[in-house]
Amino acid sequence: MIEEGDDLNNKQDEPKETITRVTGMYKDWFLDYASYVILERAVPAIEDGFKPVQRRIMHSMKDLDDGRYNKVANIVGHTMQYHPHGDASIADAMVQIGQKDLLIDTQGNWGNILTGDSAAASRYIEARLSKFALDVVYNPKITEWQASYDGRRKEPVNLPVMFPLLLAQGGEGIAVGLSTKILPHNFIELIDASVKHLQGKRFTLVPDFPTGGIADFSNYNDGLRGGRVRVRAKISQLDKNTLVITELPFGTTTSSLIDSVLKANDKGKIKVKKIEDNTAAEVEILVHLPSGLSPDKTIDALYAFTSCESSISPLGCVIEDNKPLFVGVSEMLRRSTDNTVQLLKQELEIRLGEFEEQWHFASLERIFIENRIYRDIEEEETWEGVIQAIDKGLQPYVEHLKRAVTEEDIVRLTEIRIKRISKFDIDKAQQKIEALEEEIAKVKHHLANLIDYAIAYFKRLKEEYGKGRERKTEIRVFDDVDATKVVIRNTKLYVNREEGFVGTSLRRDEYVGDCSDIDDIIVFTKTGKMMVTKVDSKTFVGKDIIHVAVFKKKDKRTIYNLIYRDGKGGASYIKRFAVTSVTRDREYDLTNGNKSSAVLYFSANPNGEAEVVNILLRQAGSIKKLKWDIDFADILIKGRNSKGNLVTKYAIKKVELKEKGVSTLKPRKIWFDETVQRLNVDGRGELIGEFRGEDRILIINQKGIAKTIIPEITTHFDNNMVIMEKWLPNKPISAIYYNGEKDLYYVKRFLIENESKEELFISEHEGSHLEIVSTDWKPRAEVEFVKERGKDRKDNLEINLEEFISVKGINALGNQLTKDKVKQISLLESLPFEAPEEVHADDLDVVDEETVQGDHETESTNNTEDDGEGQTTLF
Question: Are 539 and 597 found together in one domain?
Answer without folding.
Answer: yes
